[in-house]
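stage 2 :: seqdesign
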C-alpha cells in the first residue's frame, strides 16, 4: 500500500456480522423449537406423575 492511498474504513451491518439472513428472523425458529421442547418435556413428566 502506498503512502498516497487513503484507507477506506470497512463498514459492516449487523446482519453481515451475525450471519443472520437479512429477510428472515433467527430468533423465531429458536423460540418455536424451545416451546415445542417444553411441551414435550411437560408431557413426558405428566406420563410418569
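stage 2 :: out
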Amino acid at each position: 500500500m502506498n503512502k498516497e492511498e487513503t484507507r477506506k474504513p470497512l463498514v459492516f451491518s449487523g446482519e453481515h456480522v451475525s450471519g443472520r439472513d437479512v429477510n428472515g428472523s433467527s430468533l423465531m425458529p429458536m423460540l418455536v423449537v424451545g416451546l415445542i421442547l417444553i411441551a414435550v418435556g411437560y408431557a413426558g413428566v405428566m406420563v410418569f406423575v
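stage 3 :: structure notes
- The chain has two helices and no strands.
- The helical segments are 14-18, 27-48.
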